[in-house]
Hints:
Blueprint: E1 2-3, H1 17-22, E2 38-43, H2 72-76, E3 88-95, H3 102-110, E4 128-134, E5 137-143, H4 154-167, E6 172-178, H5 184-192, E7 199-204, H6 215-225, E8 230-233, H7 239-249, H8 270-286, E9 295-304, E10 307-316, H9 319-326, H10 331-348, E11 351-360, H11 368-373
Parallel strand pairs: 1-8, 3-5, 3-6, 6-7, 7-8, 10-11
Antiparallel strand pairs: 2-11, 4-5, 9-10
Helix pairs in contact: 8-10
Amino acid sequence: MTVNPDQDPSAPAAQPPEAAAAAGADTPPDFASDPDASGAVEEGADTGAEDDAADAPEGDEQDGDARQAVDLDAVFGGKSAAAAAGQRCGLVAIVGRPNVGKSTLLNALVGQKVSITSRKAQTTRHRITGIRTEGDAQFVFVDTPGFQTKHSTALNRNLNRTVQGVLSDVDVVLFLVEAGRFGLDDAKVLALLPADKPVLLIANKLDAVQRRNDMLPWLKSMQERRDFAEFVPMTARKEADVTRLLGIVRPYLPEQGWFYEEDALTDRSDRFLASELIREKLFRLTGDELPYSCTVVIDKFQEEGKLRRIAATIVVEREAHKGMVIGDKGEVLKRIGSEARQELERLMDARVFLELWVKVRSGWADSEEHLRSYGYE
Length: 377
């Protein structure tokens, strides 16, 4: 097992559906005529995005233990695969328990946001592909849902099938854990990893570790669990750590032609990214009050030159959840629409007109039929 710590491991007001229709908004099929659908809010394309505040950073980095760090390279030695000449390309899975930082790492590796992030667990629900081409190597990263060990609903069974399907296809696996921590949920994910694939142990959130010397006994315990191909302590938000990880992964990519164009960033459509960004704002602005069993359905996505017209429905399971999403006088829904529109305009380099609705679908997360209709594979 090679240890690689080359550096110190250290807008407009909310309207009822009738008002939206009167203003000339296209009503989403099925939902608009349903008496349970309510809380429409429109985000006009001519509203300035620059007036709204951007998301605040989630925390300052720590310098960590000032004492001399353990030389992990000297302790464990190295056996990195030798890099060969020629073009390389391969699939790299990012796996781990929910809320361990997989989507943050994917976005950092790609160099642009392609997967939504939230402090709320179980945010990622689909296989998200992010692409990074560096020199003669193309990395095709696959962000997976966190493996679900609780709540045996149809949704969670679907998420687990997605994780297992990804693992059967990839060339290398990045097993993401929090540095210095390993719990039962981590162990359940580790037990699912294929024995015939190289697995790299990625110890993320290293900046949160106060005593770096305490990492040595933890690393030894991890080595006993599996013969990891590499051990990479890092912080996903540090550019130098991300660059170092790319160099470590590169030799594990097969020598073959690239799968995508050199400037490709993801294989997902703008329509899909729109639904994900709205869902991200939904989670961030409702916090822990709203259960994770809500989703976003894109009812309309029209391109008109440099304008995008998008109508979307937020689906929740209970009437009380609808009230949380709409908020007092529609303020929460208005803010969700405003922040989602701003980010969509930056992502798509176009003006966006966004219309949001809220709909109650009791039991949708445990219905295979509803899951298929909402785009779950």
